[in-house]
Protein 1
Amino acid sequence: MPVKPESIHPIEYRYGCERLKRLFSVENFYRTMARVELVVVEVQEKYGIIPKGTSNALKNALSKFDVHEVFEEEKKTRHDIMALINVLARYMGRYGEYIHIGLTSADLRDTTKVLIIKQATEHIEEKIRNLILTLGKLAAKYSDLPCVARTHGVHASIYTLGRKFAVFADEFLRHLERLSEVKKRIFVGKISGSVGIHSCLGELGEQIENEVLSELGLQVDESSTQVISRDRFAELFLLLALISTSLDKLATEIRNLQRTEIAEVEEEFLPEQVGSTAMPHKRNPINAENVCSLSRILRGLTISALENVVLWHERDLTNSASERILIPEFFMLLDEQLSRMTRILNRLRIRKDNIRRNLELTEGMIFSEIIVTKLAIKGYGRQKAHELVRRIAMKAYETRASFKELIMSDKTIRQYLDEKELERIFDPKEHLRVAVKRTEKIIRKIEEVLGEKIL
């Protein structure tokens, strides 16, 4: 999208997809509120609360009104919902007196927010599913490719590259599960009047609310006051921040694996792409860094989401301004993260030569735990074996001697393990059966959840 000189927020031109931009547009917000009002009018008309013909008049108004008219009206009313009602009423003739009966502003505003959040959540869900599928395919492709596992940033033990991708895929499967669980608490609306107890229309109002929200695909928030309780929103936003943080974690792994000293993976770098104005050689993981950077914003937004839970009595307006900002930002920035990460993974370069080089870098030290275990099983004693292998490893570090050669030539070790057994210990493929098995198990889970074939 071309940058407009008058643009202020990067969401306007840099981040987020066009679908979400339309969803969170002011135009869509007002038209969705008008749609909620129409469903209320249709149900009220059915019960004889308002005259027949009101719903047709409102439909006619919806086809004619312009959001800019609402903006102009708001300059007079200093109230956005009253401005909308006034503009709609003008197009309805005598029927304009029969809309918004028994309602309060939050009935339209909060129910509309949830309707938009519902669509945005479904969009994010689909993006997560695409990401999981991409991770699953990488897990399957590299399920038995040996690599080094690192703890504290230091070579630890034998691992597989496929296992790395599978572990991340499983984490995002849990996020799908969490989203599914919170829907029943999040996708609720209210058409219950000024403080949520149908003081104007009584039990008939309650019946109308049930029918309206059912038509809109929402559940009734029976504990609403003038507003829907913001613990519901906060729960969703905390989950979105958690998803964002998992993306940060995945991007950080890619950035670390792309470090010059490791260089096991690399983001796509286009032929004419420039990494630095000063250093022509640079090939930087800029997309993974972008994912990490956006995650900092989303985690910060959770503070506002939590503070919005605390409102005075049956409501105040302290949540309003922050929600105008944080709701679209949460979804559009998370959407950007998911899109970028899926793109990174689909175009990720796997440097098998460097993976093999790093595997051999410590000349067998990554098999030290296995040597200790084998010695213990043979009867040498686990603690003694640990100290013996530790001393050999420290000698290899200090003298730069080959750890494998020191192990192979140690007389004590050779009393318990012959050359053939030791060679098997130093063969990476000998120790990956469970890694491959568990990777394939996660892949089958992905296939079951997504209904897509990978293996």
Protein 2
Amino acid sequence: MNAVKVEYTVKPEYRETNKKNILRVMEALRLRPIPGMQYATFTDERNPDTFIHINIARDASTMAKLSDVSEFQDFRMALKGSNPVSPPKQTKLNLVGAGFKLT
């Protein structure tokens, strides 16, 4: 199982736009799911301009399929163009245990 966390902070005036762009990605994944992958985005309760994306996939090739989703490509380009306060930082997560199975 592969898991990554991506965290970044946007400018306050970009927060709502970023949320809308994320929701477009989520809608695309609902319509065209990637089997064996779970993807979710959160905001930090201490700073609503900080976003945390968690991607969990059965393997690296499944995880890489997210980059093929056009809405995700659009989201990434828009985020980069917004000049975030802190750019996306990716951290690989090591699984200790899980209460779910990726299909």
